[in-house]
Amino acid sequence: MAADTTDPAEEFGSNRSWLYDTTPGFYLRKVLIWGTTLGLSTFILFPLYWMVVTAFKTTSEIQQIPPTVVPETPSLEGFRLVVESSLAAGGFDSFLGWDISSAIDIDVLLLIANSLKVAVGAGLIALVFGTIAAYVLSQQEFRGKNAIMSLLLASLMFPGTAIMVPEWELISTLNLFNSHLALILIYGAMTAPFVVWLMKGFFDDFPDSILDAARMDQCTPYESFRYVIAPMAVNSLIASFIFAFLLAWNELVFALTLLNQSKFTVPPGLLTFVQGFNTQWNVVAAASILVSLPVLAGLAYIQRYFVQGLTGGAIKG
Amino acid sequence: MSYADQALSSYERALGRVPDGVRVYLPILPVLALVGVFILYPIAQAIWTSFTDKHLLRPDEAEFVGVENYGEVWTNPQIHEVLWNTFVWVSVGSIAAIVIGFVLGWLLHEKLPYTSVASAIVLVPWVLPRVVGASIWKFMFGGSQGIINELLVQLGVIDDYVVMLGSTELSLWPPIVGMVWRLAPLFALLTLTSLKGIDRQLYEAARMDGATPWEQFRYVTLPMMRYNLVIGFLLMLIYNIRNFSMVWVMTRGGPGVSSSTLPVMIYRAAFVDFQVGFASALSMLLFAVLLVFSYYYIQVYDKIRGEF
């Protein structure tokens, strides 16, 4: 701790000696705390470790009983099989002079392409419509504003399982069954309220004086949005897009009920493979890691906005 | 035409003809239309379908059957088992996730270094694709090569490998463990965020008044966090009751209906048994519960907004 600290609150924050006392319970408490930490981190992290380790095992090592905690012969067989089967499904018999014969039937690359298409589409719809609505809801006062915000918050709680049957009926009526457009629209509808809440929080905190200054400089509303607000909002906009993208990337129920196998996105595709006979778990783990990479990249970016986005800004840090 | 009008584009002039009171709603319209068509309308449609005997393969021959579907919900012993499963799932899963999440969030805030990196790592189970997380647990709980069976044998809890996912007594529990794994990080982050938001000076004041660490926790921390805890609690209930993927990936709700919760049963009724009308009646049940939860969510939310 710096000796020249003058702010008592800061000093209090960095000096934690008050957490401990000198009674014999001190060591007991320390053991309890580290024991709990160890136990909880094992619970949270071990499955992740297990996925990574499994992906690097060979098919024969997967079938060993008891399972090995550290792979004996680390190999990329799982990843190789994923890529090979995708190439085989794409109609390639050989690739760069390398013969492909795939025993498994999962076209991960196609699944990823489908998911990308749906997730980017849904993310853009949610971002554009959501931001416009959020801007108006934040800057203007009008009748029914609170009702609209509550309605959007409530609609965040429903999507998914409660409406999968009526959603299927609607999509059949609209003749959109087995099309990615249906998923883009549904995911857009599911995430737009999310974006509205997130961006409204941003616009609410946006200082009026900056907008006034822009108006003094003869900016039209569009120009002040384009040259003043947008550059400052770029972080929030990217976070909103990532939120919408992740939801679409992860969603299982609608993708499973509204698509046929030929058009599957990642979640139902992986599901069919996991539930098939004689699942090769190293391939599943390798495919899982591949489809989780975009998610982990996104997480690094949105971590700061996570709680706000999740609760509609109800919990502030 | 005045000078002011000439300065406007044709788009702006068209906008100017829209009455003032209506114009403000135009930018909100796309979002409301999306939500209305793809979320609200299906719900209304489901109310009607739940009173018919609609069949998935013959959707045009649906006939009005009154409350027959609801009567079946009331009398069918399978549905009773499903409802009981759902109750166990939601209560056990939520409480476990809350306890573990709270302790984890508190540890992250008070005891552990590198809080922001650590909380990012802790969040991974929540952001991983649902199917991926569930697949890992299915593999770990597996009956022949599962690491959890091996662990239990090593600890001496069981003598030989048990087929947990295929047993009517046990099959409900592995998905609950997986769900707690997914939800606890979320609650931990909510806890961490609300702990961070508490003014440190409050603790100093409490110490001046001679409060012990426990009293500080009881009379400063908990009251300051109360709404956030309620929000977190409601989120846990909502996420738990509407979960589908964890059960479906791990057990498909089986054997029988021993591990089916309400959403899984809806899926099975509609897309395995093709009884769309009956599935809609079940959806109404789930819908009613979610409506109550989100009503309280919005209530609490309004309270918080008043406070800040």
Q: What's the quick description here?
A:
Chain A is mostly helical. Chain A is built from 14 helices and two strands; from the N terminus they run H-H-H-H-E-E-H-H-H-H-H-H-H-H-H-H.
What does this structure look like?
The complex is a heterodimer of chains A (about 325) and B (about 300). Chain A has about 325 residues and is an all-alpha fold. Chain A has a domain of about 200 residues: Orthogonal Bundle (MetI-like fold). Chain A has 14 helices and 2 strands; from the N terminus they run ααααββαααααααααα. In chain A, helix 5 packs antiparallel against helix 10. The radius of gyration of chain A is 25 Å and the shape is globular. The model of chain A has no long low-confidence stretch (mean pLDDT about 80). By secondary structure, chain B is mainly α. Chain B contains 15 helices and no strands. Chains A and B meet through helix 1, helix 2, helix 5, helix 6 and helix 7 of A and helix 4, helix 6, helix 7, helix 8 and helix 9 of B.
Walk across the major sheet of chain A and give the strand order.
1-2
DSSP strand content of chain B: under 5%
**What is the general shape of chain A?**
globular
CATH class of the domain at 108-311 in chain A: Mainly Alpha
Separate helix tally of chain A = 14
**Oligomeric form:** heterodimer
The ordered string of helix (H) and strand (E) elements of chain B is HHHHHHHHHHHHHHH
Could you tell me the number of beta strands of chain B?
Answer: 0
- Domain unit count of chain B: 1
CATH overall fold name of the domain at 108-311 in chain A? MetI-like fold
Q: Which pair of protein chains has the largest interface, and what are the residue counts?
A: A-B, 100 and 105 residues
Mean pLDDT of chain A: 80
The largest sheet of chain A is: 2 strands, antiparallel
Distance between the termini of chain A: 24 Å
In CATH terms, what is the architecture of chain B? Orthogonal Bundle
Describe the global form of chain B: flat
| Unreliable stretches of chain B | none
Helix content of chain A: 55-70%
